[in-house]
Amino acid sequence: MSNDCKENVNMTDINFSSPPGPDGSSSADDSGDPAVDHYDLIELLFFAYRDFISEPDAILDGYGFGRAHHRVLHFVDRNPGLSVADLLEILKITKQSLARVLKQLIDRGFVTQRAGERDRRQRLLFATPQGERLARQLAALQSQRFERALADMSAAEREMAAGFLLRLINPQERAQVLSLVERARAHGDTR
User: What is the pTM of this model?
Assistant: First the structure.
């Protein structure tokens, strides 16, 4: 897209119809595949995600970190005392992938781990003051992007946007995600 595009797009300017098939007809009508109808939304989500992570990516790069570090740091900061097992469940990654990223964050002083009080084998994760600062710097950038996007939306439209994002999550995991978000919000309110 060119830099001279309008910043505020009228959503009626976006055509949410399916791309035409080889003969010019609607692909969804020809194939019966309802997923084809969602190409516009898929592309908007790709571009939104690209921009949502671009500023944090630039900061993380300065530390030699990547998106995996960002995700770990975000959830550890939002959920002090999060167990490694719970973090694996949240991120849906392998132990090996987490071990590499977590070791770097611990070695560089962004995260610390402690043994559980009841079960000494359990490893609980905490952001250090340095980790908290970085996590919150990154979250502030993303929060500003949300503030700009939501600025002219009504409360009902904001609720609809949140509902849409929630519905992108696998149905069997929605309650767990909502519980995690609420717990992190409650913790954040006590800071």
Answer: 0.78
